[in-house]
């Protein structure tokens, strides 16, 4: 297998680049499919407000150790949904697991302010999402997040810190 890659690099960089692009596309498609499966599971959990062992097993396959950490955060009541009034806009505030108990602002499907989001997800592409995003998704699906109503001005102030 090493020889063909070496030969294509030697004969012209285009084919090597093409092989890398194809590999990236496969990983991107796999991630997209994993997120679609996860979305189906989140919807099922939300409809019953409970999670089965089978659903947990599938989520664990998709998210690994981050799911375990997220369940601890949810069990400890570490997820708040900050709701702006009167707009109804929202963001989640999720407690970290460190001794400092830092709180991270996140949009469960798109962004988290934690270091892991930038390092493991954005830069390295090793995870689909961080434990804070998972905790927010799980808490919403189970109906266990704490709703905190704030003014739209206060919400804007929180968002400006991102």
Automatic annotation (TrEMBL):
GO annotation, cellular component aspect: nucleus; Shu complex
A GO molecular-function annotation: transcription cis-regulatory region binding
Domain of life: Eukaryota
Keywords associated with the record: Metal-binding, Zinc, Zinc-finger
GO annotation, biological process: defense response to bacterium; double-strand break repair via homologous recombination
Keyword Zinc among UniProt keywords: yes
All residue ranges annotated as the SWIM-type domain in the record: 92-141
UniProt-listed InterPro entries: Znf_SWIM (IPR007527)
Record PANTHER family: ZINC FINGER SWIM DOMAIN-CONTAINING PROTEIN 7
The protein's name: Zinc finger, SWIM-type
């Amino acid at each position: 297998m090493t020889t063909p890659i070496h030969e294509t690099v030697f004969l012209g960089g285009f084919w090597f680049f093409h092989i890398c692009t194809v590999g990236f596309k496969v990983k991107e498609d796999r991630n997209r499919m994993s997120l679609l499966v996860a979305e189906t599971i989140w919807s099922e959990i939300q409809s019953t407000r409970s999670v089965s062992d089978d659903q947990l097993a599938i989520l664990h396959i998709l998210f690994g150790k981050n799911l375990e950490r997220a369940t601890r955060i949810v069990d400890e009541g570490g997820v708040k949904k900050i709701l702006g009034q009167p707009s109804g806009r929202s963001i989640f505030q999720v407690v970290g697991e460190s001794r400092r108990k830092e709180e991270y602002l996140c949009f469960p499907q798109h962004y988290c302010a934690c270091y892991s989001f930038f390092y493991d997800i954005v830069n390295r592409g090793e995870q689909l999402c961080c434990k804070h995003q998972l905790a927010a998704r799980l808490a919403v699906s189970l109906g266990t997040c704490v709703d905190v109503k704030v003014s739209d001005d206060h919400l804007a102030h929180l968002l400006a810190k991102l």
